[in-house]
Model the fold of this input.
Amino acid sequence: MEKERPLALGAARPRRLRANPLVRRMVRETQLRREDLILPLFVCPGTGVRREISSMPGNYQLSVDLLVEECRQVAGLGIPAVILFGIPPHKDAVGSSGYDPQGIVPQALRALKAAKLDLVLIADVCLCEYTDHGHCGVLHGEEVVNDATVELLGREALVYAQAGADIIAPSDMMDGRVGHIRRVLDQAGYSQVPIMAYAAKFASGFYGPFREAAESTPQFGDRRGYQMDPANAREALREIELDLREGADLIIVKPALAYLDIIRAAREHFQVPVAAYNVSGEFSMVKAAAARGWIDEVRIRDEILLSIKRAGADLILTYFAKDVAAILP
Ligand code: PBG
Done:
């Protein structure tokens, strides 16, 4: 092989393709599209309730009536999907309000279905919003018991499918829950309802503001016994593989920013749509710094969302969805 000679100055000038906005637009490799966006929403009891989440400016706990109005707007912006989280009126040790057919999320799903919006309704399935101890499952002492929890998650998933959920999204990180939910849905005639599994979900400090929003902070301990260790990339691939074998149709990597390598690896290893959850803490950091005038919110936001796409995500769950959709061409 011929030895590479040093290039003469000026032979290669990458700046030629950066000369003006038109050329830059032509050679842009990654695009954020409206179709990529999924907006998380929090639904609470009552009517006429619109309570701002202090650590997440512009995000609210909404009662069902106002949630429907919000979703009408969201659909109008061309955002294809929302994911719903419930704040129930009562919590107990086994999270019964999570699988009550009259619960807050089923109520919301029925109202949204009746409104006939062009919107895919994703229901997050977990128990942490519904348990009084704030853990994602039932306890034996201080341990979250896997198989008994999976059983309840199956019930929750079925109740949501019956209420009209278009996609079921288990976020609990119990072992075997995707397979169990798949069987429960199939047996009840919901074999066409896809499962979007939070497959690689890390035990992350970035969930802080969400726990204020969903009132789901664990009352003791933490979630490290079921969510993944932030140090582990190989294990993330194994988690994804298991969820796919159990029947997941789409997978989620969560959080996004500190885990861009996991998003990239998921994209390269698996032939299913990959979603990334740009979580509450990632949103709040930008808002807080921007509020102090330390950063330019719009630039930073767009740069972050683009980085998630560039890493390989097909879909992004983000609290920025409305802001971005409003300015996308
Ligand atoms: C429920 C759940 C959480 C998030 C999504 N689903 C919280 C948690 O695991 O503590 C976090 C989302 C966010 O931070 O935006 N298990």
